[in-house]
């Protein structure tokens, strides 16, 4: 079932003194329930503009974005329903949780705002959410964000995103601020949740390696245009577009590096 | 004070000791700290954390002095040995004595009683003006910081207008409209001309807060605007609001005593400025009648010091580096280290003779 | 001239706070002339403290509590770094060792031209040079790092992040040091720019023969650029070997864990379990 549709979306910014900048140029793609799409691109490729359009910080100059067949509503009950179905996981787990509030508060609010469970069951639901992201509710529930590690915070942020039982998760570089050794854990958690709940996930990243393993399909963006798309392994292992090839060649790849006998100054570097 | 209240600098767990390289991260284990049970935050602990900015030596010292003056103001009737206007013709220009601890005035009024009663006016005007100014500053500052476009700009323009309104002439005009301007009116005028700085600072901080991820997250959750402002933002602005409040109290007290001293406000109820006015008019300065002008002067100084101490305390809370600068340097000195050294000290643990 | 540039023996650094933190514990390593040594490990493992500590760049409360650092100068002289006085240390730092910091490109003075900032280095450390000689040296440096002499009069904001980082490398290269310490020099850059700069660093060290200590949390990148890699954990080096042997035949369990913790671009290991 088609969950999210980008239909010929263009976004043009007027820049004072510099005319216009086309951040997105005729971008179209669809995302099905239970599917993960990796949006790969460098800074300025337009991938963050897509996130901004989805979170309504920006509106497309032309084209349409549809969730479940409906255009993004501007206000009222439709907007509420849209927000309930689409949730964000932000890049920086230090900044995305309010330092003043407890973990319990962070998870309780979406439950109450969208009336997910009756008030009497809120506490149990908060605990269930924490367990879902592999955190011990007894330990973390009444802590404040600064008492947790980066990885724990990002898990809390994921639990918060899941609280309203959304259909689509937009994950904007969810692991790039985390230590290398815990990235895989967080990505595996996201993959598990996605499989179990049939979530659609839009994974926005600059990192080809995680995009390849975490996504079903990859869209490569360059200067606002989709230059290549396809199944994740195809795009990364057998890139067709010159820009994708360039990205792939520039990304660290120890397997290829050590397979070639050329050594440190050989072709790979 | 530093207007950027970032959660990281407030956070002792992630605060980086000075000298640790920028990319070095203090270890944060994936496993939670040793404590396994954690109390649910009670109302008291929440209240405690809201006032965490006052939990340091400087703030506590300042609050103690301020608290003393507040108590004096409340219990002035009980504490003062005489009525401030009671005239004792047998004791004029008396230096301190057993009957009149701080001596008497030119017509034999008791100076101590005047100072005690004068505290009331100072405290009432100071706090009332600050409450009025802070409320306006919060409403205007946070709104103009959160909103965008013409509404934000016009609120900002209003703030700028009030920034440049000359306060002294305004007060003189208002005071002249009353035979005997009540303290509330004086406080209201001082509050009205004193909110603009606070509003500016709050606007700047709100603008930076509104783009933070946790505010974006709250909006994405569909939190209503009033909740975003009151529940998500205001707690993070508390230190700034407190600092602005304390600053306005200081300004209002100084304005009141100054205006009373130069005689712009012909108040019959005593405050420290009025006492100084009388003392000046009766030549106490020339005749060296120190017991008349020194006590109110020292009181003004003391309350100024108290309020500054509270503000220093808040500053240190907001920006722990300020505290570390002093405290750490002293602690390091004890260990024979100098924080300004550009070369890492070498101190083999087993050999001590190299340490001068 | 020996093959070793820097010998670090039994080196320990403690942050003298309460409680004291042992950031680096009894580290021993030899840095070879002209090699790129990668320091790897999770945040808090002490890799940055070690790299800064051997140049005594750490400020109090950091204290070197044991060990020795000997710099085997190209002139044949051995310099005991821990015994240097403050002013000797200052000279040592730019002449023999230089640093490229993470985000260094943002530390350029925004109101001075690139050229004048590079000239400053010579003015301070090579006061005998004439104005013309300084200028000539700067132009040469800008050409070496492929920024181009025409950028001499540019201001930092007129250059891209990658260009600015090249200027920082030029600055580090100015006095032809024998060791460059690079702390996450490419972390904030896009992958294409990052690759170009890495290529350049590698080419420059062949041309000028300096050694590099390269710190990054990006293990795949480190594996490609380094000749040898030191894996650090809790302030200790748990394994030190050539990049190739670390990759093909890691000995320590922790090294194995680290190697399996990142998804591979083309390999099969490090998969997200889906």
Overview of the molecule:
Chain C: It is found in: Cell membrane. Chain A is α/β, with parallel strands linked by helices and 269 residues long. Helices cover 39% and strands 26% of the residues of chain A. Chain B is mainly alpha-helical and 356 residues long. Chain B has one domain (56-334): MetI-like (MetI-like fold, Orthogonal Bundle), CATH 1.10.3720. Chain B contains 13 helices and one strand, in the order H-H-H-H-H-H-H-H-H-H-H-H-H-E. In chain B, 40% of the residues are buried. With 274 residues, chain C is of the alpha/beta class. Chain C has a domain at 105-176. Chain C is built from nine helices and ten strands. A six-stranded mixed β-sheet of chain C has the order 6-7-8-3-9-10, sandwiched between helices. In chain C, a hairpin with a 2-residue loop joins strand 9 (228-233) and strand 10 (236-242). In chain C, helix 3 (114-125) crosses helix 4 and helix 5 (161-173) packs parallel to helix 6. Chains in contact: A-B, A-C, B-C. The A-C interface holds A 42-43, 179-181, 183-184, 187-188, 191-192, 195, 206, 208-210, 212-214, 236-237, 246-258, 264-265, 268-269 and C 36, 42-43, 190-192, 194-195, 198-199, 202-203, 206, 217-221, 223-227, 243-244, 247-248, 257-258, 261-267, 270-274.
Topology:
The complex is a heterotrimer of chains A (269), B (356) and C (274).
Chain A: E1 2-15, E2 19-32, E3 36-40, H1 47-54, E4 62-67, E5 70-71, H2 76-85, E6 86-89, H3 103-113, H4 122-132, H5 137-140, H6 150-163, E7 168-172, H7 180-197, E8 200-205, H8 208-214, E9 217-222, E10 225-231, H9 232-237, H10 242-250, H11 254-259
Parallel strand pairs in A: 3-8, 3-9, 6-7, 7-8
Antiparallel strand pairs in A: 1-2, 1-4, 4-5, 9-10
Helix pairs in contact in A: 3-4, 3-6, 4-6, 6-7
Chain B: H1 43-50, H2 57-74, H3 76-79, H4 111-146, H5 150-164, H6 167-176, H7 183-194, H8 196-210, H9 213-220, H10 225-261, H11 272-281, H12 290-318, H13 320-334, E1 345-346
Chain C: E1 4-15, E2 21-32, E3 36-40, H1 47-53, E4 62-72, E5 78-80, H2 86-95, E6 97-100, H3 114-125, H4 131-144, H5 161-173, E7 179-183, H6 191-208, E8 211-215, H7 219-225, E9 228-233, E10 236-242, H8 243-248, H9 253-259
Parallel strand pairs in C: 3-8, 3-9, 6-7, 7-8
Antiparallel strand pairs in C: 1-2, 1-4, 4-5, 9-10
Helix pairs in contact in C: 3-4, 5-6
Protein name (chain C): ABC transporter ATP-binding protein
GO molecular function (chain C): ATP binding; ATP hydrolysis activity
Keywords (chain C): ATP-binding, Cell inner membrane, Cell membrane, Membrane, Nucleotide-binding, Translocase, Transport
């Amino acid at each position: 079932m088609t969950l999210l549709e980008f239909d010929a979306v263009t976004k043009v910014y007027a820049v004072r003194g510099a005319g216009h900048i086309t951040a997105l140029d005729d971008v179209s793609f669809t995302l099905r329930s239970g599917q993960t799409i990796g949006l790969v691109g460098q800074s300025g490729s337009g991938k963050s503009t897509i996130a901004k359009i989805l979170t309504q910080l920006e509106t497309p100059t032309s084209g349409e974005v549809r969730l479940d067949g409906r255009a993004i509503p501007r206000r009222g009950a439709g907007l509420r329903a849209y927000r309930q179905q689409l949730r964000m996981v932000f890049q920086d787990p230090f900044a995305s949780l309010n330092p003043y509030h407890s973990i319990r508060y962070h998870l309780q609010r979406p439950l109450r705002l969208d009336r997910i469970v009756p008030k009497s069951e809120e506490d149990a639901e908060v605990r269930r959410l924490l367990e879902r992201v592999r955190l011990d509710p007894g330990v973390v529930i009444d802590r404040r964000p600064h008492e947790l590690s980066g990885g724990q915070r990002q898990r809390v942020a994921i639990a918060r995103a899941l609280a309203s039982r959304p259909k689509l998760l937009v994950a904007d570089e969810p692991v790039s601020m985390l230590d290398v050794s815990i990235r895989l854990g967080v990505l595996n958690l996201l993959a598990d949740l996605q499989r179990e709940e049939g979530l659609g996930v839009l994974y926005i990243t600059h990192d080809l390696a995680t995009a390849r393993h975490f996504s079903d399909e990859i869209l490569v963006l360059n200067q606002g245009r989709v230059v290549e798309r396809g199944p994740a392994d195809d795009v990364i292992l057998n890139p067709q577009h010159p820009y994708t090839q360039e990205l792939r060649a520039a990304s660290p790849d120890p397997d290829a590096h050590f397979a070639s006998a050329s050594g440190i100054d050989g072709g790979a570097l | 004070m530093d207007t950027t209240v970032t959660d990281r600098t407030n956070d002792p767990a992630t605060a980086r000791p000075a000298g640790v390289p920028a990319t070095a991260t203090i270890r944060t284990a994936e496993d939670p700290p040793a404590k396994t049970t954690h109390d649910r935050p009670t109302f008291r602990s929440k209240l405690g954390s809201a006032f965490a900015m006052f939990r340091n030596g400087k703030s506590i010292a300042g609050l103690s002095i301020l608290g003393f003056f507040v108590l004096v103001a409340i219990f002035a009737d009980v504490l003062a040995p005489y009525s401030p206007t009671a005239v004792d013709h047998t004791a004029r220009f008396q230096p301190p004595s057993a009957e009149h601890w701080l001596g008497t005035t030119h017509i034999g009024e008791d100076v101590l009683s005047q100072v005690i009663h004068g505290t009331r006016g100072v405290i009432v005007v100071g706090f009332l003006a600050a409450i009025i100014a802070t409320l306006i500053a919060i409403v205007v500052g946070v709104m103009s910081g959160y909103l965008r476009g013409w509404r934000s700009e016009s609120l900002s323009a209003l703030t700028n207008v009030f920034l440049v309104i000359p306060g002294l002439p305004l007060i003189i005009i208002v005071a002249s409209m009353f035979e005997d301007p009540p303290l509330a009116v004086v406080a209201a005028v001082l509050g009205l001309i004193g909110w603009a700085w606070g509003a500016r600072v709050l606007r700047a901080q709100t603008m930076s807060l509104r783009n933070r991820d946790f505010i974006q997250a709250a909006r994405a959750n569909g939190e209503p605007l009033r909740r975003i402002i009151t529940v998500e933002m205001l707690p993070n602005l508390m230190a700034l609001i407190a600092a602005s409040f304390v600053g306005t109290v200081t300004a209002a007290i100084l304005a009141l005593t100054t205006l009373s001293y130069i005689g712009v406000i012909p108040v019959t109820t005593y405050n420290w400025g009025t006492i100084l006015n009388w003392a000046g008019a009766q030549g106490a300065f020339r005749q060296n009648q120190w017991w008349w002008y020194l006590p109110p002067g020292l009181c003004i100084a003391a309350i100024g010091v108290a309020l500054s101490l509270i503000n220093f305390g808040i500053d240190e809370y907001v920006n722990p580096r300020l505290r570390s600068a002093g405290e750490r340097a002293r602690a390091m000195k004890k260990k024979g280290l100098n924080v300004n050294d550009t070369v890492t000290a070498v101190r083999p643990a087993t050999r001590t003779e190299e340490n001068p | 001239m020996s093959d070793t540039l820097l010998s670090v023996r039994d080196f320990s650094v403690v942050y003298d706070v309460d409680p004291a933190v042992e950031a680096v514990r009894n580290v021993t390593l030899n840095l070879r002339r002209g090699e790129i040594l990668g320091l790897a490990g999770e945040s808090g493992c002490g890799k940055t403290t070690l790299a800064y500590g051997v140049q005594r760049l750490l400020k109090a409360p950091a204290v070197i509590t044991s060990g020795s650092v000997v710099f085997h100068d190209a002139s044949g002289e051995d310099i005991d770094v821990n015994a240097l006085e403050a002013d000797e240390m200052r000279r040592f730092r730019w002449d023999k060792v230089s640093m490229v910091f993470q985000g260094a490109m943002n530390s350029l003075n925004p109101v001075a031209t690139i050229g004048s900032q590079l000239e400053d280095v010579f003015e301070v450390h090579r006061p005998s040079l004439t104005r013309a000689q300084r200028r000539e040296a700067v132009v040469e440096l800008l050409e070496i790092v492929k920024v181009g002499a025409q950028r001499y009069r540019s201001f930092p904001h007129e250059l891209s992040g990658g260009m600015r980082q090249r200027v920082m490398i030029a600055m580090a290269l100015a006095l032809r040091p024998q060791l460059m310490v690079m702390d996450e020099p490419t972390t904030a850059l896009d992958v294409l720019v990052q690759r170009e700069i890495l290529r350049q660093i590698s080419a420059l060290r062949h041309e000028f023969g300096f050694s590099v200590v390269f710190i990054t949390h990006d293990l795949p990148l480190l594996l490609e650029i380094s000749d040898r890699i030191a894996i650090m954990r809790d302030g200790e080096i748990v394994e030190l070997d050539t990049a190739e042997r670390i990759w093909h035949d890691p000995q320590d369990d922790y090294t194995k864990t680290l190697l399996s913790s990142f998804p591979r671009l083309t390999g099969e290991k490090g998969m997200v379990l889906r």
